[in-house]
Design brief:
The chain is elongated and about 55 Å long. It contains 6 helices and no strands. The longest helix is centred in the C-terminal third of the chain and has 28 residues. By secondary structure, the protein is an all-alpha fold. It has a single domain, classed as Globins (Globin-like, Orthogonal Bundle), CATH 1.10.490. Bound molecules: protoporphyrin IX containing FE (2 copies). The site of one protoporphyrin IX containing FE has 13 residues, from helix 3 and helix 6.
């Protein structure tokens, strides 16, 4: 965390944070393809929506209408979003927040991202479980048991 950094104060700060994050995320070797190749994300259309999401959470703006999960379920149907993808997303998000800002809202931005990432990943796993095993392709079906991978990425 930079000692001279200030906290997130207004919508312009949210936009700056979001742009810096996508600069990293879209070129990232682990998750970049999800934005670029799978979702074919239109960044200029997307930035204002994500800025509103964070403005709502961090500054109480009510500019975001909700329903954030649905596009991730759609993405997951095209390319499965795994624990490792969410962990990578969080690493990039935390690094971007810490690089640009410091303070209570900066901490909240990191904490809330972790909650949302866990919730999204849990909901996707529940959807997969409800849908049952994927169609048999002739090999042995492989199922995963035991503790969740993302129990606590901060530990
Ligand atoms: C200042 C207070 C807060 C605000 C303004 C806020 C705002 C939001 C918004 C706008 C969303 C997206 C909702 C959607 O897309 O439909 C969200 C999602 C979520 N928030 Fe918060 N939040 C706050 C505090 C908290 C706290 C204290 C927790 C838990 C301790 C929490 C846990 C979650 C979770 C788990 C989700 C994801 C829900 C899902 O599965 O879609 N939030 N929040
Ligand atoms: C592996 C992790 C993730 C990937 C690959 C991902 C990817 C995407 C993509 C491609 C979209 C745009 C979908 C579209 O409009 O076509 C999107 C939307 C969005 N994402 Fe994520 N995301 C991830 C995790 C998260 C997390 C952890 C959060 C919150 C902290 C989040 C918040 C949002 C929000 C708010 C939107 C806008 C939804 C709307 O249109 O209202 N994402 N994401």
């Amino acid at each position: 965390m930079r000692r001279d950094a200030r906290d997130i104060e207004d919508r312009a700060d949210c936009e700056r944070l979001v742009r810096a994050f996508y600069g990293r995320a879209m070129t990232d070797p682990v998750i970049g393809f999800l934005f670029v190749d799978v979702a074919k994300l239109d960044l200029e259309a997307h930035v204002p929506v994500i800025a509103s999401f964070w403005e709502t959470i961090l500054l109480g703006a009510r500019s975001y209408g909700g329903g954030a999960f649905a596009p991730h379920a759609a993405l997951h149907a095209k390319a499965p979003l795994r624990a490792g993808h969410f962990e990578r997303w969080l690493v990039l998000w935390r690094a971007t927040v810490d690089e640009l800002f410091a303070g209570e809202r900066a901490e909240l931005a990191k904490a809330h991202a972790l909650r949302v990432a866990r919730a999204f990943h849990g909901r996707l796993e529940a959807m997969d479980a409800a849908a049952g095993p994927p169609p048999a392709t002739g090999g042995l079906p492989i199922t995963l048991h035991g503790p969740r991978l993302t129990a606590d990425p901060q530990r």
